[in-house]
Amino acid sequence: MLTDIFKKNMLINTQRLLLRPLFQSDAQDIYEIFSDKQVMKYYDLLPFESLERAKQQVEFFTQGFEQKTMLRWGIEYKDNSKLIGTCGFFAFNEDVKKAELGYELNSSYHGKGLMTEALGAILGHIFTQTDINRVEAYVEPLNIASQKTLEKLGFTKEGTLRQSERCRGELIDICVYGCLRSDGKY
After folding, report:
1. pTM score, two decimals?
2. Which helix (H) or strand (E) holds 56?
3. Which CATH number is 35's domain given?
4. Nearest alpha-carbon partner for 153 in 174, 132, 177, 130
5. What is the crossing angle of helices 51-66 and 27-34, to 10°?
């Protein structure tokens, strides 16, 4: 059952990363990530302008876990123990056994395969520890790096939803990607 995952140990080790719960002590690193215009270019939030806003985001992620509506890991880089991003699942639908994937990474760590490593670990976790059958990801058409990451992870581009979201004050298109348990990658 899906809710059982919230009772399990959240620590996941990969070769270069420790995926772990988020804490208020991570607020400075969250601010560094979420205030970066490059990171936020394709995000549905505007860049943060204060540390207080970063503290609120950490609280949002941790409350989602406590309320069993969101499972979000902090991505800690083992080489320097720095929090360099977050990733996880939300928009759970128990009826059709699906969840949505979300993630962001400090721009200083882009292009190193770290997000692919982190997402591969949590996809393996959700497909082996729950009865989730489908994970979806929604990506702006110009966010080529994110699309390539999803494709490396075995996601299939299923189409484009035209003007389906309001982001940064305008209606935007969104590409839909899906990964099924039966795809057999995890």
Report:
1. 0.95
2. helix 51-66
3. 3.40.630.30
4. 177
5. 110
